[in-house]
Amino acid sequence: MRDGRMFLVAASALSIAALMVAQEPRQQGPALGASxxxxxxxxxxxxxxxxxxxIKCHENGAAPVVVEQWAQSRHAENGIGCYECHQADKxxxxxxxxxxxxxxxxxxxxxxxQCHDQETKEFEASxxxxxxxxxxxxxxxxxxxxxxxxxxxxxxxxxxGSTVKILAxxxxxxxxxxxxxxxxINPDGSKGSCCVCHSRHTFAVSIARQPEICGYCHLRxxxxxxxxxxxSKHGVTYRALIAKMNLDSGxxxxxxxxxxxxxxxxxxxxxxxxxxxxxxxxxxLSWTLRPEVSIRQQAWQQKRNDMKKVCLNCHASSWVNNFYxxxxxxxxxxxxxxxxxxxxxxxxxxxxxKLGATPFSKKIQWDYFEMWHHQxxxxxxxxxxxxxxxxxxxxxxxxxxxFYSEFLPEAEALLPGVxxxxxxxxxxxxxxxxxxxxxxKVKEYYQKRYGE
Length: 452
Fold this sequence. Notes:
Helix content: 40-55%
Largest sheet: 2 strands, antiparallel
Number of strands: 4
Strand content: under 5%
Shape: globular
Strand order of the largest sheet: 1-2
Order of helices and strands: HHHHHHHEEHHHHHHHHHHHEEHHHHHH
C-alpha cells in the first residue's frame, strides 16, 4: 500500500474532507485556452512540488491534454495532483524511476481508497470487483481457446479485466496493459479500475452518471442494458431532459437535486431520501439473470425493497408492485418453459456421450449457448428494464425460434426420445397444431386488417 500518498495529501494543507464535500454545479469546461492560463497557474501553484514537476514536463511534452483534463477536475480544485495519485514505494511491484521520482502507471482502487474509503469498500463488495472471475468460465473458453488470446485481451479482458503483469523494472507487460476491465486484478492485490466509470483525468461525476459509460460493457448481444434503457420510457425522458439532470452536482439525491428522469446510476447506485448512494451495484438486484436458469439473489427480498424505494420516488406503490409481478412472471416463464428443459436435455446428452468433452464442438452446443447466453438474457433483461422490444423480438421470439426449430430437433437427432417429455408438456401442445377455431381467428384477423 502506498502510504506515502496519504502524507503528501495531508502536507498540502488541504482537507481531504473538502474533496468529498458537495460542490456547486458547474460546467466542465473545454480545453484551456490563453484566457485560462491564469486559472491554470493558480491550480498548479496549489499542488505539491512533485506534482508541479510532473505538470511542467507534461504541459509541453508527453500527453499534454491530461493536464487540461486534470485542471477541470475536482482533484485540481482541491490541490490533488499527479504525484498524489501516481506516487509509489520502491518496494511496489509496479514501481519504477521516472525523472527522479518513484511512480507507478497504475492507479488502483487501493490508491483511490486512501481518500475515498467508503466508496472503495462498497466497490470491493460488488460483483463488478469480481468480474475477472470470467477467466474460469465457458465464456473464457470461447474467447481464449476457440477465438484466440489476442481477441480475449482486446475484448473480454477490457470489460471484465484480467491480471496485470509487471515486467522487470516495474513497467506493465504490454500483453496485459492497457486494461480498464472493471474487475482488473492489480499488482497490489486490489481488484478493479475506478477509471472505467470515472474517466481519468477529469474524473467527472457527470460522466459516471450517464448511461453511456455503462454501455462501455453493458451492450449487445448478451447484455444490452444500455440499448434497453435507451428504448425505455426512462431513457427517452432522460435524453429529452438531460439539461435538467444536474449531472455535475456534488450532491445528487433523487427528488432533491434532480427529478427529470432516472439513469443507470440512479436506480443501481444513486441516493434517495431513504437510501444512501452506493458503489455496490448489486445491492438492489433481486434476480440473477446471467445464468442458464435465473436464480434469486441472496437476501433478495431486502434488495428488492431497496430498489422499490427508488421506484417509489416517481411511481405509485400499485404501479411498482404490479411491475414486479409482471417481471417475475416473465422470468419464471423463461425458466420453466425454456431454460430448465433445455438445461436438462443438455445434461442427458452429455451423460450419454453425445456432446464430447470439448465445449462448442457440436452445433447444438453453439445453439444452446446463444439461446441462454444471448437471447434468453435479452428477454429477461428487457423485462427487468421495461424494454418491450427486447422482451419480445430480441428476446422471447429468438429463444422460441432457436428452442423449437433448432435445439429440440438437434437433440432428438443425437438421442432419440430425449425431447419427448418436453414436447408432450402442456405448454408445448401447440406443436401438434392449432385448433380449427384458432386458425379461423387468425385468418379472420388478417382479412379484416389487411384485406387478405
